[in-house]
Amino acid sequence: MIEPKELQEIAREFGTPLYVYDESKISERIQELKNAFKQSPTRFFYACKALSNINILKLVCAQGIGLDTVSINEVRLGLMAGFEADNILFTPNCVDFQELDEAKNLGVHINIDNISLLEQFGNKYGDSYPVMIRLNPHIMAGGNYKISTGHIDSKFGISIHQMRHISRVVKTTNINVEGLHMHTGSEIKDVQVFMRALDVMLNAIENFENIKYLDLGSGFKVPYKEGDVGTDVNALAEGLSEKLALYREESGNELEIWFEPGKFIVSESGSFIVKANVIKQTPATVFVGVDSGFNHLIRPMMYDSYHEVENISKPEGTQRIYTVVGNLCETDTFAWDRVLSEVDEGDFLVFKNAGAYGFEMASNYNARFKPAEVLFSKNEAKLIRRRENFEDLLEKQIEL
User: Which CATH class is domain 23-266?
Assistant: First the structure.
């Protein structure tokens, strides 16, 4: 864990707003997963949509796990970072068939979640290239409706009630389906959600001849505040092991389980440091206005997500109540009525659990620059993305 004093020094060196990632925390989380599931044949693919800086990808690759991608450019980033094609999973949604063509040519695992694309792929490639199919189990799960992906109104996956249609397409075009996939949502605390999803897939296997693995997606819950409960991956591993052992005994088939953790691996590694620009007192509220906004950390506004905030300039100061807001021409409230050590203008505040979907969802709204990124490795802070400048804002524009 990076200490507040070290974060202050990093903020002074590289400026704010600033994303800082703790390499040791990423490695620790990956090892936790490996230890939990060591009794079962399990593969992990890091969901790089959470944080795709190529230095983070190289770090994950060195830990010996795979990469989960959702766009062809993420596939290319993974290959550049050193992942072998067989260790990359491509799960796109609502893409043009050309992306599937490109993924096939690059040799990665392809996960298809649309009957139309499944039929096109089968007509073109038949059984010459194995695929997996993403099913929608109609299971409502996740910490927010916007991150629930397995319910009946979700755009993701092919409904389990369309199994007869899937089977007709598979048989007619002779597609080699070697895996089934489900992802019900994010921030799942109840491991029984995964158990129910596994039951659905085990029942679906009878419709296919060559299933080698089942992918349960991810959505492991990460604690964001005191009292939060994360996903018990040890209990999940134990439950899956028992269920798969029973299936193996009854069928004689050995199945591999795949997971695609993203937030679980990088969320706690990230600290987002901002500077207090102004302290503004109104009749009802004391605001801390910082040098950032939802252009750099959109999760609180988009998902009502909670991020613990700490005044690292005065970690032991007098406790007062503040509402932390941004500098955009929008209502961009990071935190309402938070107890913080007394804040003065110029103090550094840190948002914790900012490693996932922080920088990755950043924008240039209000013509603000995207922050720099720093990797804290072996007690050394290393710049892995420079802060944008005014020239960057104009680089892609064509002035007439």
Answer: alpha beta
